[in-house]
Amino acid sequence: IDLSKxxxxxxxxxxxxxxxxxxxxxxxxFLELGDAGLKEAGIQLLGHRCRILREARKYREQxxxxxxxx
Length: 70
Prior knowledge:
By secondary structure, the chain is mostly helical. The protein contains five helices and no strands.
């Protein structure tokens, strides 16, 4: 998945530029971030960080399920 597409899908596209400014161009790199990393990258609103982490976790679970079935 594309980082921009992910943020559009979860309704938080305003953070795409902020993450790019912090060097996050690949979705795989972004998936390594936790709450503290998101905050350090400039995402200050706790509710937005919770949504991002929840949706990223769902994505990782989907990928894990897909990988195991192959």
